[in-house]
Design a protein that fits this description.
Layout: E1 6-7, E2 16-17, E3 20-24, H1 50-59, E4 64-68, H2 74-86, E5 90-95, H3 104-111, E6 117-122, H4 135-146, E7 150-153, H5 160-168, E8 175-177, H6 191-200, E9 206-210, H7 228-238, E10 243-245, H8 258-268, H9 274-289
Helix pairs in contact: 5-6, 6-7
Length: 292
């Protein structure tokens, strides 16, 4: 049961909530494979592995993470699975699989041997406008339901209309929108994004990650107030039952540091009830991904 996801204070005091970071990446940097990391992102052109994050998690009282794919290959999925075997911080993995493949059922059956694997993601933000309406892709997403896998939706704000039509086709499939669908915080655009996110939230099987917003603002030149209108919108639309805290580490380092984002969300939620904070910062991720 979700209510059991607490740890007892060694002194016998009050129980402490479990905090789960629902969105981190790990990689061994490869210039050719990781060509998406441009010169403007030089900071990311190095290895980022669990041992580089562990102390940050401890300082921020984070109990575990969900490791999310950054490369579109089955090798990436296996890499994250292998990392989880030696790093207890990894409570779940969101991998990649070719959802358009004719042998999608065979591949899903193969990966079903790994219980740490909770769902899949495709980098749709880099695909043509009509990608989500592709019949082969939709067949692959439909196959996820059979295995009870979730699907992370990675899109830009200008792809929300297509995502809305896509999600409506799968009322039984668990979805989560990564990074609040990347609103244009840098330019202060919010009206159309807010309306479409409200429509997206009418689908009860759809959740939303409070992650990735630092890099949608002006890098290292933002103020906390820049994010509040966007946080207001997703909290009003999804409520505290369908929002998941996430850092998007190490990408977040392009615009800030880990503690800044976590502290900003804690400040935003300071007047919320403790049970609502517990949901957003951990329990919702545990429920959505079925974390052990």
């Amino acid at each position: 049961m979700i209510n059991q996801e607490y740890s007892q204070d060694p002194s016998g005091g009050a129980k402490e909530s479990i905090v789960i970071d629902s969105h981190v990446h790990f990689w061994k940097y490869d210039k050719k494979r990781d060509a998406w990391i441009t010169d403007s992102m030089k900071l990311l052109k190095q290895n980022y592995l669990p041992e580089h994050l562990s102390q940050t998690l401890k300082r921020n009282h984070v109990s575990g993470v969900v490791a999310v794919q950054a490369d579109q290959s089955e090798l990436e999925t296996l890499f994250l699975i292998e990392l989880s075997k030696t790093h207890d911080m990894i409570r779940g993995v969101v991998g990649w699989i070719d959802l358009k493949a004719d042998n999608i059922e065979d591949r899903l059956n193969y990966f079903s041997q790994y219980p740490i694997l909770k769902g899949y993601r495709h980098i749709v933000q880099a695909e043509p406008e009509d990608f989500m309406s592709n019949k082969s892709f939709q067949r692959g997403v439909r196959a996820l339901q059979t295995h009870q896998y979730s699907y992370d939706i990675l899109i830009y704000h200008n792809q929300l209309k297509q995502a809305l039509a896509f999600v409506s086709r799968f009322p039984e499939q668990k979805f989560v929108i990564d990074h609040c669908a990347k609103p244009d915080i840098r330019q202060g655009e919010i009206k159309e994004w807010k309306i479409l996110m409200q429509e997206m939230a009418t689908h009860p099987q759809l959740y939303c990650k409070l992650s990735g917003l630092f890099t949608e603002a002006k890098w290292s030149a933002w103020s906390a107030g820049d994010f509040y209108p966007y946080l207001d919108a997703v909290f009003e639309s999804f409520g505290t039952d369908r929002l998941l805290y996430g850092s998007d580490w190490p990408v977040i380092l392009l615009s800030g540091i880990y503690v800044q984002w976590k502290s900003l969300l804690e400040k935003y939620m300071e007047k919320f009830r403790q049970e609502e904070k517990d949901k957003v910062f951990g329990l919702n991720a545990i429920q959505f991904y079925g974390l052990g």
